[in-house]
Amino acid sequence: MQSSKAIVSSRFHIPIPCTNLAEYIFDSEPKNDYWSPEDPLLLSADDPSFPGYTFDQMKTLTKALACGMQESEGKQVVLYGYWNYNFYIALLGCLGAGAVCYNSPPIHMGGSVSRLESLKPEYLFVGPESLEDIPDILSQMAHTPRYEHWSSRLDFNDEFSWPKLCDQRLKAAPALVLTTSGTTGNPKLAERSHYGLIGNAEQLLYRYNLKKREKEIWLCNFFQYGIGFLLYGILAPLKARYGTIFMRGFSVERYAKAVEQLRPTSLHSPKHILQELLAHTNGADFSSVRSMRTGGAYIPYAMCDAWEKLHGSPCEVVCGMTEGGIHFASDPTVLETDETIGELLPNLEAKVVDNQGRVLAKNETGEIYIKNPFFMRRYRNNPEETKEVFSDDGWIKTGDLGKVNEKNRWYICGRKKDLFKVNGGHISAILIEQAISVHPEILEVVVVPVALPNEGEFLPRAYIVAERNSSLTPDLFLEWMEREIPSEMYTRAGVEFVDALPISVVSIPYQCQMIY
């Protein structure tokens, strides 16, 4: 018997405060009492000389920077370069002053010039390693900046209070501009509000605390310029008064050392880092870790199962969008046994629709639509793409193909734009990736659509990262593919071996003042 058509609502609904992000984090009562005021909450895995910042120290510095940046309310601020632990203060201080922030990694000259001309920031906070690049970038725009050290902006005024923004501005006006991963097309600039980001943090913390927690220390290695790091590396742990470990970049050796020395209880890492940890941390001491959280790509259940067997803690999956935060997450009170991405986070609704927008029944596959009160209002300077992401009745088109079962567990089956026509039907890139990933010498694979001359349709091409010391070659792989994989899953646009897959978030970062 076919299930009825379904619009699924989260089983949880929670109140969301409407306030400034800095006030939300720093002026609320602690949610736990496991940390004394003297305990450092922000730790560094990179700098052994850094003693860490306590919560009160972070609040004092953030408030002092916000006070010193009061004239920037409503103005554009760009944080440019490789992060260090002082970027936490810079970001939260500028947000606390009411500025609109954009967090940019260092990129090539042309991209930097183009993006800065587009954003026209009043202030540019620059990481020390990127300072030498800035004069050349700004000379292309015929602008000579005035330099000052960021600490010169600190104003320790006891009478300063966070700007009181009206509810309309907190919900609608941008606080942070984030570059999307490009999974719904080309990368775009999503404008996120104070209210929307606070809602995202509250969703995650409510979900996380369905399971009883004790003294928590989080280590987050999501891309430091994306939504995952913002939520799991900054907003959620600081709001909850959890310890949070900053680690720039990644290597297995440095990561394992940080876990053994700093003893995190919860890890948050994208798929490619999880794969490295599975391959190269057998024997490392991960006994402090009580959970791993991963996402950013399709996660086969075998990876989560392998993590639990290797390190003894559950591996939970999260799934979402830069534009709206995390939409789905595993239930921390339940040990998942298949490839579900979990259930809806609080305050969300979702449905599955066909190509005509008709709602499908449970267990039927189509595009996942979301209703999310924390979603962005628009893509910056891109009204066409903004209109395209919303349906006529206000639902958000995620671009994910998936389904929901009778227990309201959700499953991702592919990307709508990554379907390939084969023998009159369709097959998704994810299914091809699943088939290829069983090869014992393949660490990571991504399949993308490629247009070839004289072909009427896009064809699949595989980019493969082989295991260390592997002897696998493209020719050997193609022989294996023809022997082991159904013909409809052949990578008909070829295969290319690479040292590493690029992170999906594209790094895109005028008259401006230079602060470093």
TrEMBL record:
Origin: domain of life: Eukaryota
Transmembrane segments: 217-238
UniProt-recorded name of the protein: AMP-binding enzyme
Gene3D superfamilies registered for this protein in UniProt: 3.30.300.30, N-terminal domain of ligase-like
Keyword Transmembrane: yes
Keywords tagged on the record: Membrane, Transmembrane, Transmembrane helix
Pfam families: AMP-binding, AMP-binding_C
Domain AMP-binding enzyme C-terminal per the UniProt entry, residue ranges: 432-502
Species this chain originates from: Aspergillus bombycis
Residue ranges annotated for the AMP-dependent synthetase/ligase domain, each copy included: 53-379
Single annotated GO MF: catalytic activity
